[in-house]
UniProtKB/TrEMBL annotation:
Pathway: Ketone degradation; acetoin degradation
Pfam families per the UniProt record, alphabetical: Hist_deacetyl
Name this polypeptide is given: Acetoin utilization protein AcuC
Family: Belongs to the histone deacetylase family.
Classification via Gene3D superfamilies: Histone deacetylase domain (3.40.800.20)
Taxonomy, superkingdom: Bacteria
Keyword set, alphabetical order: Acetoin catabolism
Length: 387
């Protein structure tokens, strides 16, 4: 399915490090790239480096005074709470600007490769820092790399960009930065803001012309309900919007083992979402697909396997879920974390769902969430909200 694929990677991307004990531990991307390499996934792609985003590129979405504040924190490591740095979520550290700008630069490099036609798909698994706002850090995110990439694509002449965010947390930063811009369709499927940070992402947050789309799922939602919601909302909107480029954020903290949230997806359900988005990139965006990582805080059992599957899907060569994890990678896990590594690339689930053609159950909280979203935004797009 995929013609040319680029994965952007620099070892220096692991410098985005809030310190010992912080959930956003860089070992998660280190182990991801090691697993992808051991399984031959990276043999099927072009690996490319990147440069840090410039201040002008960051200023496509971030305030200049905020960038200056991050630079000051970066020089000294001293907190600046007005910039959101020095909090429990976002500890200040020396080098924070350079580390954050490199992540933004990696996602920009992916967007540039796709826009210029150098690659059909491009990925930065270290990216997806979707909570950062124009003038403050938030939710482990300093610079909003997906938003920077989207703004850059618009500056290059893209008339429509779609952003789909499957992180368990609402993609509030990206939504806020494009809330009044009908050229950008933001779709976020997340745990209900009633039970999870950041407390936003209700269906009535509709943006410009219904281009902010929020599917707020109940705590405890698993593969079947999540996939039913995805297929009940995302494909019809992407088909109608017909973006020039599809940008996706793949936080894997929707997994049942994630310590910071309450959805119950399996690795296999997440893999099904990756495959669906791949198909939609070809169907609705001419194959132009920019992919980022995101959240995910089960550092050994979930993130490396999930994002290795993601990279394999992006490459057009999905892995057999029953593939064994390589012995060398298992040894690396023990050395780097002291934990017991998973033995296979699956949770052993068969994710199945019924689509909305089977009817709507008003007693089911997932169906109520789906219908709330469809009622809120489908009419703006000329779509019937009634399943």
């Amino acid at each position: 399915m995929s013609r040319s694929v680029r994965v952007v990677w620099e070892d220096a991307l692991t410098a985005y490090d809030f310190g010992p004990g912080h959930p956003m531990a860089p070992v998660r991307v280190e182990l991801t790239m090691a697993l992808a390499r051991e399984l031959g996934v990276l043999d099927a792609v072009e690996l490319a480096g990147c440069a840090p985003a410039t201040d002008d590129e960051l200023a496509l979405v971030h305030r200049r005074d905020y960038i200056e504040a991050v630079r000051r924190v970066s020089e000294t490591g001293a907190p600046d709470r007005s910039a959101g740095l020095g909090t429990e979520d976002n500890p200040a550290f020396a080098g924070v600007h350079e580390a954050s700008a490199l992540i933004a630069g990696a996602t920009l490099a992916a967007a540039r490769a796709v826009w210029t036609g150098e690659a059909e798909h491009a990925a930065n698994v270290a990216g997806g820092l979707h909570h950062a706002m124009a003038g403050t850090a938030s939710g482990f995110c300093v610079y909003n790399d997906p938003a920077v990439a989207i703004a850059w694509l618009l500056e290059q002449g893209a008339s429509r960009v779609a952003y789909v965010d499957v992180d368990v947390h609402h993609g509030d930063g990206v939504q806020a930065l494009f809330y009044d811009d009908p050229r950008v369709l933001t779709i976020s499927l997340h745990e209900s803001p009633r039970t999870l940070f950041p407390g936003t992402g209700f269906p009535d947050e509709r943006g410009a012309e219904g281009t902010a789309v929020n599917v707020a799922l109940p705590a405890g939602c698993g593969d079947g309900g999540w996939l039913r919601a995805f297929h009940g909302v995302v494909p019809p909107l992407l088909r109608e919007f017909a973006p020039d480029v599809l940008v996706t954020q793949h936080g894997c903290d929707s997994h049942a083992l994630d310590p910071l949230a309450h959805l119950m997806l399996s690795l296999d359900g997440q893999r099904a979402a990756y495959a669906a988005l791949h198909e939609l990139a070809h169907e609705t965006a001419g194959g132009r697909w920019v992919v980022t990582g995101g959240g995910g805080y089960e550092l050994v059992q979930v993130v490396p396997r999930a994002w290795t599957h993601l990279l394999a899907e992006v490459s057009g060569r999905p892995l057999d879920p029953f593939t064994a994890t390589p012995p060398a990678w298992r040894q690396l896990v023990r050395e780097r974390t002291g934990e017991t590594p998973p033995l296979r690339m699956t949770d052993g689930r068969k994710p199945e769902f019924t689509d909305l053609s089977t009817g709507y159950d008003p007693a089911d909280p997932v169906d109520r969430a789906i219908l709330a979203t469809r009622n809120a935004v489908f009419p703006f797009h000329g779509l019937d909200p009634i399943p």
